[in-house]
């Protein structure tokens, strides 16, 4: 099996103590489900257990997990999704991103970056967060799905993906932007690209029918196929159950595709076979976390850096 830049060996995760479905982000996240305040402690405790169990499962499957704790003192209900505020890149580069809502801006923790510097070779950190007062946002590998091998940044237009910052990121990090409009079956704009697209080493899970312009849809499909990947089409129902919000990881036992149990349950026998030709499917139970409108991919910031 050839080594792939697409599938990191390590991830950063955050275990929350006061997780909840965030009303501040609900306006443009149609995947989100609000819950009653009376269930707050129950929901928070369930989310804590889900992250604990997920980390244990990943480590048992040979994935390195750098786990950070969030004590909830800064009121960061979405801290469990660190992939939105930073990303790491081959060659020792880190990007820090401007976040759309006030509560999500509090998630940035420089201690996370310092620990990465202590364990990995980091050449530079480019911080775009100062653009927030100008109402310019780019929520990391939620807003962008990056093809690290072909250097393409697939991006669905939304409140959380400003085209000016996207161009800056692509110039700094040597990616080509591939932007498109996307909406679900009810016409809701897709808030993050990574709910409708997952790019692995040898395949891509994509809800291509959500790309509203037919010509652009063909261009996206062709570009993925030109990279040598098999395009696996996901239905509206599968994307609504987070089957598109998956991440391929490298482990000591080979490549795995981490996906929520909710999403994995929707896959057809043929789709499973297509995935498992090159990666082992690893279903993970995160149904409480999914109330916040994100799933397994959102919970992991991939580490694409070289060890010291």
TrEMBL record:
InterPro entries: Amdntrnsf_FN0238. It comes from the Bacteria. This is Amidinotransferase. It comes from Pseudidiomarina planktonica. The lineage of its organism: Bacteria, Pseudomonadati, Pseudomonadota, Gammaproteobacteria, Alteromonadales.
